[in-house]
Amino acid sequence: MKYRLLADSGLLVSELCFGTMTFGGKGFWEVVGTLGQKEANHLVGRAIDEGINFFDTANAYSEGESEVLLGKALGTNRKDVILATKVMSRMGAGPNEIGLSRVHMMHQVEQSLKRLGTDYIDLYQIHGYDPFTSPEDVLKTLDDLVRSGKVRYIGCSNLTAWQLMNALDISLYRGLESYKCIQSYYSIACREIERELVPLLRVQGTGLLVWSPLAGGLLSGKFTREGTRDENARRASFDFPPTSEKTYDIIETMQEIANARDVSVAQIALSWLLHKEYVTSVIIGVKTEAQLNDNLNAIDLQLSEEDLEKLDEVSKLDDEYPGWNQYPAWPEDRIPARA
After folding, report:
1. 39-57 pLDDT, tens per residue?
2. Rounded CA separation 78/58 (Å)
């Protein structure tokens, strides 16, 4: 396993983060995965044996059951891993059992600690943007949680570039804890964050945690333009994240490279992300040991410059304003002569 720094925290996290959305399977989350305690114990144990020290969940996953299963699966290994969870989603029928208000977050952190069976959370992340709570109030609450010792670091998820920059400014000028990372959807099939978010992360030194690196299983190798090879795959009945016809051009190029290297399409997708220096960790979600083993093999897969050029070309973003007008070709008489 290889490790990367989480922003400027000094904390080293594994390049692959074990995501637990497949744990539990209650309600809405049943379509994602229904792994029980026995399966969770086995997969978490295998991940730790392979050097994964970073585990991600959320209070909303399977209505809290994912946190319970993960906490029990970690057991005595808790002290050796970086444990991340999230807050914002609805967790009850009451009008204040949702969002990023101080009331909701203060209550939910206690509930997450109880479910996880721990007295601190290494990385506490807001699960999205709450338009009804001021960013300053959100950060003040998170700052209090860090000062209380219940949370070590804070992060965010699914924010736009302006929302993240606004939060970073508030933290700087108010002397509050700041987001060490953002968790965003990013894959070779969806590169939109490269327009504004990635440049911001590079300038600010903020970490990037990638969710759904296989585009909800679309880049697993089970799906082609003609259809799916696995009718039981989550993507067959749950089309998320959204995709486009262009994705199949990308898959065909990935399959060509995968065949030449005798690896899986999924490994190509993961390796492409791991070649990006601004990516801190890639969150994988698995249902079986075979899937976990396949994902782990992506760590040592080195793509050639030719491979990367092919993949970048087939997946490149369309030009979008103001990007196409940012750097016009200056006439020769405007370019200063070199001394």
Report:
1. 999 999 999 999 999 999 9
2. 17
Task: Indicate the pLDDT class of residue 90, thresholds 50, 70 and 90.
Answer: very high
Q: 215-247: per-residue pLDDT in tens?
A: 988 998 877 776 665 556 655 555 667 667 789
SS3 annotation, the chain: CCEEECCCCCCEEECEEEECCCECCCHHHHHCCCECHHHHHHHHHHHHHCCCCEEECCCCHHHHHHHHHHHHHHHHHHHHCEEEEEECCCCCCCCCCCCCCHHHHHHHHHHHHHHHCCCCEEEEEECCCCCCCCHHHHHHHHHHHHHHCCEEEEEEECCCHHHHHHHHHHHHHHCCCCEEEEEEECECCECHHHCCHHHHHHHHCCEEEEECCCCCCCCCCCEECCEECCCCCHHHHCCCCCCCCHHHHHHHHHHHHHHHHCCCHHHHHHHHHHCCCCCCEEEECCCCHHHHHHHHHHHHCCCCHHHHHHHHHHHCCCCCCCHHHCCCCCCHHHCCCCC
pLDDT attached to residue 232? 60
- Please give the positions annotated as active site: 61
Indicate the class that CATH gives domain 3-219+274-301. alpha beta
pLDDT at 198 > cutoff 70: yes
| Domain ranges (residues) in the chain | 3-219+274-301
